[in-house]
Amino acid sequence: MAPKFHGLLTKYISYQRGPVTILCGDMRELLWYFLPGSIELVASDPAYETISGGSNGNGKHRRPSGMLAANNGKGGFEHNDVQPEEYAAQLYHVLRDPAHLYWFMNNLGEERTLAAFGAAGFKRHKTLYWAKTHEKSQKPDPNPNRWYMNVVEEILFFRKGTAFAISDPSMLEIFYDPAPRGAARLHPTEKPVSLMRKLIKNSSQPDDVVLDPFCGSGSTLEAAVSTGRQAIGIDIDANYCTIAAKRLDRFLDGCDSRLLSGRQLSFSTGL
Ligand SMILES: C[S@@+](CC[C@H](N)C(=O)[O-])C[C@H]1O[C@@H](n2cnc3c(N)ncnc32)[C@H](O)[C@@H]1O
After folding, report:
1. Would you say 94 and 39 are in contact if contact means Cβ atoms under 8 Å apart?
2. Residue of the nearest CA to atom 24 in ligand 1?
């Protein structure tokens, strides 16, 4: 099979095993080295703003406060300064035509994301919702909020090119999956593998390449390989690249060896 990826990417590979490749770097730079149409599906939970208020005293900077202070770069994750206009066109470029893209978002970043993705050429199908459930009770597990309790996260569902149906059109637009918590949680904003598997199965085929350009702990990558897809993850934070690699090693150690053989992504040798 002809390589779909530029040889310059090899220096960013922090993990490659069977159908999984993790690249450590800034997705805004790395996406330039992907060939147009090299990716069949993008599913990601990007870094985005999670607070609406606060100022540093001169009114210029927002800062987290109260219970949201965990996401101020100290208790949460460090790199949170990337904006959709900086990468929407590149995502459009690397996706095949037609393709789907799933983008986790909150109401603070929604308008800006819709504008940037629309300008890049994406069409929005609709907004989906992840209702976070409690692992034991399996009931929605809300967080306090003055303007109705928070229990859902938005997933903006876009397409590139001609519309095509998902594999299971009987599926509802709201997903009830437990949020990873406690000692098992690998990332402060980790997404459930069970949810990512549903999105991936609905919008790609076995052996397709699924990209998560903000892969964090690698939940999307595990979901992709567990459904027979190939997976590429990018994260700027070397610590999360290592955490994702360990997750994938654990998963691949225990999986059917057919998932591993002959399915490594290839990179062009020249520049
Ligand atoms: C919301 S988290 C993703 C969590 C992931 N869905 C999971 O389940 O673990 C976003 C991730 O994007 C990474 N990130 C931030 N800016 C980035 C950039 N410019 N390029 C690549 N990764 C970036 C952060 O390090 C963080 O791990």
Report:
1. yes
2. 79
Does the pLDDT value for residue 212 go beyond 80?
yes
Across the range 233-260, mean pLDDT stands at: 92
What is the mean predicted confidence (pLDDT) over 9-34?
Answer: 96
Domain of residue 124, CATH code? 3.40.50.150
Report how many domains make up the chain.
1
Q: Is 45 in the pocket of ligand 1 (CB under 6 A)?
A: yes
CA neighbours closer than 13 Å in the CB half-sphere of residue 227: 23
Report pLDDT for 263: 66
pLDDT band at 76 (very low <50, low <70, confident <90, very high): low
Task: Give the C-alpha separation, 62 to 232, whole Å.
Answer: 33
Domain membership of residue 33 (yes or no) is no
Q: Which atom of ligand 1 is nearest to the CA of 191?
A: 8
Location of structure tokens 């306090």: 144
List the residue whose alpha carbon is closest to atom 15 of ligand 1: 79
